[in-house]
# Entry
Amino acid sequence: MIRPVLTEFVLFLAPFVVYAIFLVATRAQVFDRISWPPKTLALLTIVALVLILGSFLVLAHFSGAPPGSTYEPAHMENGKFVPGQTR
# Structure
């Protein structure tokens, strides 16, 4: 469960990190308040939210069991544990 949460967290932070790298490359003051105007922060936040929404759509579309498959729960068979699986 921690991997999907960290993935979304990294995707949210990515635009801000790229902007900070841009500020360093242009020799601007990264920690100066004037380098982070509200309009730029709003745009970066929108880009971050679009990235997160896109990742949700990609995960929903390309992960999970194929359509029409059935789930067989975990069970014991001849004294051995058989993990759950989709068929």
Observations:
- The longest strand covers residues 75-77.
